[in-house]
Design brief:
The structure holds 2 protein chains of 2 kinds. Chain A has 14 helices and no strands. In chain A, α3 packs across α7. Chain A is flat, with a radius of gyration of 25 Å. The two termini of chain A are 42 Å apart. By secondary structure, chain B is of the alpha+beta class. In chain B, 52% of the residues lie in helices and 12% in strands. In chain B, the strands form 3 sheets. In chain B, strands 1, 2, 3, 4, 5, 8, 9, 10 and 11 form a 9-stranded antiparallel sheet that branches. In chain B, strands 12-13-14-15 form a 4-stranded antiparallel sheet, with helices on one face. The N terminus of chain B is likely disordered. Classes of the chains: A mainly alpha, B alpha+beta. The interface between A and B is large, with 120 and 128 residues.
């Protein structure tokens, strides 16, 4: 505790910083921050510990899950993969496939648009940016009824993108590709000096080469952030996926796991918790791995408005 | 493509204008090839779609698709218009799945589209004739075998006169040659179809007993139905359609049902036939929402709670996030990174799972909070209207504060240090510095984010639907809506919920209501911030 007095604090500017004040002073300067930190972390992680415990609890019901980590077993996980009517493995793969394709395509479409907005000056540019800003206020889930009926109709003409098709769902998601993502990228593209493009073009590069060989490599961080945010968003998307994907074989984790607990929530609790843990691990790992980028992306996009 | 220099020169004020370029290299062979291949694929798909549209006779959609295809080709084949080449792919998806569907929603909001009203009048008439049928009292027996082909069921019947006929739900009876006959002389199989054995029959009992095979193309002639899979009888429509007067007459009671102009056949006593058709109803859905006693009260409550939920969510997450950001905005605090990682975990946890997991924690009977933390208490976290609202807010606080924490930390660190120092020199207290200097500065830079957060929470479907499902239900309405429902969950339940039947028209009308509210709120609030001025 003696170390605490060596630094002056911003909170107590009038306090002389030389002499030792003991616990009281330490607490006033830093100790309370630790108390707050411990309470906040407890609030943050206890639901997560609870779901992990429920997944490992062999009783498999919600009532049985009320004691944390008293018994450990993997019965819930076995049951999760054994259930033929609710193919968890398929859901997992479906989510990965739909999420990956959507995020890669979104990043690409968004980057194309951001390149145009950032590097070219054309009539309607400001109008286009404003329209995107306004449109993103109206999320796609508001139009879920129309999307359902549209896909229902399209399915009669091109069954491959009708109701029940994952391709159709991905196309719907791509409707939201331009929007907040384009904004994040647009801001980042602007930070790449235009003189780089110019010198490349003097050397004979075409606009396509400038885009792929100069700009894209320099903005990789924002591409990763946008791609990841889209992936996380899509893997949690329930409304549209639940309406479009009707066959259990083609569903995503969000729709499938919900079906586990939609009717018999407390009976299926253990199996659901096991599925939740498996579903959450990749997303959380990815998030923590790229945490620094995400944070900087958020604050950059956010603070600059 | 030598024409692009002009557009590529950034010429906006405030940005250094580089010297004009006079020349650059021609497109590479790879580039040209890629362009040809991609455009070829697009055109091939377009041609297929256009062909299908011709076959189905959807001329309006055909026209729109044709024009779109031509425009795409024009954009990529002409010289110049470089920005369009980069914008087109995203914009096309945006136009179809964001802009068009918004317009389509508006259109649906003015119709009675929904269960019982989802097709044209002609379809409705045919469907009524098929559905309401009764067995002809002296119908002959038709020995029957149920056949299956590609997952569809068919009836193979032998007429009393010995003719063998085959038919399905969409296939009126036609004479066929049987490939096998049973001991009684009745046909039991046909080439290309599988005859069902008894076990399979039982398995698909429901589909088979509801199968109705029209005797001829005219629905008035009646249809064959089987109750046991081995004998069929003739059923004729209970309701007879008279094209001249455009009415249905019940053949047993003599009641006449006539077109009421709103997509239904209605009897003089007001009862309507179940199957109707889609018509434009003008503002009826909006009127219904605000005047129907079954809907008006609950809807107003839902609107109030939607605002309450969104505002309180932003306020609580921002307050906690800011408080924690200030707490940990201290360079030499030990374990700062450790706290930070653990605190932002809820943000990394998939949002749809959070509501479900918390529903287990808060479950009144078996939940962890009541049973373990509160030692067997019986607090109705999710079933009492007020407590359920508080629970929803707590869960959303859990989900949302890490984001606000990250954002506030970033904003705090970007505040100029000098201001802080100068104020301290002048003898301002810590609290005074915070309220008079830091908070206003923070609010200016974070205002656009808070507005987006409001807009997001206004439609925060997942947390509500997964945690409470909107419940506890209101008891003054037959609709499945409750105290924690917000507008978007109400839209979803009215459109796709079970119980009251799907009502796309009403659901779309409510979605339009959300559009209007969001537009007004964000329009007003963005006017007050500088977000739009920064765009150049």
């Amino acid at each position: 505790m003696s170390t605490s007095t060596t630094t002056s604090t911003s909170l107590t500017p009038a306090a002389p910083s030389v002499n030792k004040r003991g616990f009281g002073h330490w607490f006033k300067a830093k100790g309370w921050r630790h108390v707050v930190g411990i309470i906040a972390t407890a609030f943050s992680i206890f639901p997560l510990l609870y779901v992990l415990s429920a997944a490992l609890n062999p009783t498999g019901t919600m009532a049985g899950a009320s004691t944390l980590f008293t018994e450990i077993g993997f019965g819930n996980f076995e049951e999760l993969f054994a259930n033929q009517e609710r193919p968890f493995g398929r859901w997992f793969v479906n989510t990965l496939v739909i999420g990956t394709i959507t995020s890669v395509a979104t990043v690409f479409l968004g980057a194309l648009a951001a390149y145009a907005f950032s590097r070219m000056r054309f009539k309607g540019r400001r109008f286009g940016l404003l329209t995107l800003l306004l449109l993103q206020m109206f999320p796609q889930l508001l139009t879920v009824v129309a999307i359902f009926l549209l896909l229902n109709f399209l399915g009669d003409i091109i069954p491959a993108i009708g109701l029940g098709s994952q391709l159709g769902l991905i196309m719907v998601y791509l409707g939201g590709a331009l929007g907040v993502n384009t904004y994040l990228m647009y801001g980042f593209f602007n930070t790449v000096p235009a003189s780089l493009d110019e010198s490349a073009r003097i050397d004979g590069a075409s606009h396509v080469q400038v885009f792929f060989k100069i700009i894209l490599p320099l903005v990789t961080p924002i591409l990763a952030v946008v791609g990841l945010l889209v992936f996380i968003g899509i893997s949690s998307e329930f409304v549209i996926a639940s309406v479009v994907l009707t066959d259990p074989e083609s569903q995503t984790l969000a729709v499938g796991l919900y079906s586990y607990v939609a009717q018999q929530r407390s009976e299926n609790w253990g199996v659901f918790a096991a599925g939740a843990v498996l579903a959450a691990i990749p997303v959380m790992a990815l998030f923590l791995f790229l945490q620094r980028y995400i944070t900087s992306g958020l604050t950059a996009g956010g603070v600059k408005g | 493509m030598v024409e692009i220099e002009e557009q590529v020169q950034p010429s906006a004020p405030g940005r250094k204008t580089p010297p004009k370029l006079k020349s650059h290299g021609p497109d590479s062979l790879v580039g040209i090839l890629a362009k040809i291949i991609l455009l070829g694929i697009v055109d091939a798909v377009a041609a297929f779609v256009l062909f299908q549209l011709i076959l189905t006779g959807e001329w309006l959609i055909f026209g729109i698709s044709l024009v779109t295809t031509v425009i795409i080709n024009w954009i990529y084949l002409r010289r110049g218009g470089l920005p369009a080449k980069y914008l087109a792919p995203g914009v096309i998806f945006l136009l179809v799945f964001q802009v068009f569907v918004m317009g389509f929603s508006t259109y649906i909001a003015f119709t009675n589209y929904g269960d019982g009203h989802n097709s044209t009048k002609a379809d409705a008439i045919a469907s009524i004739q098929l559905s309401a049928s009764e067995r002809v009292p002296d119908s002959p027996q038709f020995p029957t075998t149920v056949l299956e082909k590609d997952g569809t069921f068919f009836l193979l019947v032998t007429d009393p006169d010995g003719t063998v006929k085959l038919g399905g739900a969409d296939l009126p009876l036609e004479t066929v040659t049987p490939s096998s006959t049973g001991p009684s002389g009745a046909a039991t199989g046909v080439e290309g179809y599988t005859s069902l054995d008894f076990a399979t029959l039982l398995q698909h009992q429901q589909a088979i007993t509801t199968l109705s095979v029209p005797i001829s193309a005219n629905p008035q002639d009646g249809a064959l139905k089987t109750a046991d899979g081995s004998t069929s009888y003739v059923y004729t429509p209970k309701l007879k359609y008279d094209a001249a007067t455009d009415t249905f007459t019940d053949t047993t009671t003599g009641v006449v049902y006539s077109d009421n102009g709103q997509g239904s056949f209605v009897a003089p006593d007001g009862s309507a036939l179940n199957t109707g058709w889609k018509v434009n109803v003008g503002l009826d859905n909006f009127k219904r929402a605000f005047t129907d006693p079954n809907l008006q009260g609950p809807l107003l409550q839902v609107i109030a709670w939607t605002f309450g939920f969104a505002i309180l969510s932003v306020a609580t997450t921002f307050a906690l996030g800011l408080f924690l950001a200030i707490t940990f905005n201290k360079a030499d605090l030990k374990g700062k990174k450790f706290y930070r990682i653990l605190m932002i975990l809820p943000y990394a946890f998939p949002a749809f799972l959070s509501g479900l997991v918390w529903s287990g924690l808060l479950n009144p009977e078996f939940g962890f909070i009541n049973n373990a933390i509160l030692g067997g208490a019986d607090i109705p976290w999710l079933t009492d209207p007020t407590l359920a609202k508080i629970s929803v807010l707590i869960v959303n606080l859990w989900l949302g504060y890490p984001y606000m924490f990250l954002v506030c930390t970033g904003a705090l660190q970007s505040l100029p240090e000098e201001v802080d120092e100068a104020a301290r020199m002048d003898g301002a207290s810590v609290w005074k510095i915070f309220t008079a200097i830091k908070l206003p500065l923070l609010l200016v830079s974070l205002a656009p984010l808070l507005i987006s957060s409001f807009a997001f929470n206004f439609n925060n479907f997942n947390v509500i639907y997964m945690l409470t499902g909107g419940g506890p239900r209101f008891d003054d309405t037959t609709f499945d809506i409750g105290s924690t429902d917000i507008l978007i969950t109400m839209v979803y339940k009215i459109a796709f919920g079970t119980g009251t039947g799907r009502d796309y028209g009403l659901a779309s009308a409510l979605a339009i209501l959300i559009f209007i509210i969001v537009a007004v709120v964000s329009g007003l609030s963005f006017k007050k911030t500088k977000a739009l001025e920064d765009l150049n």
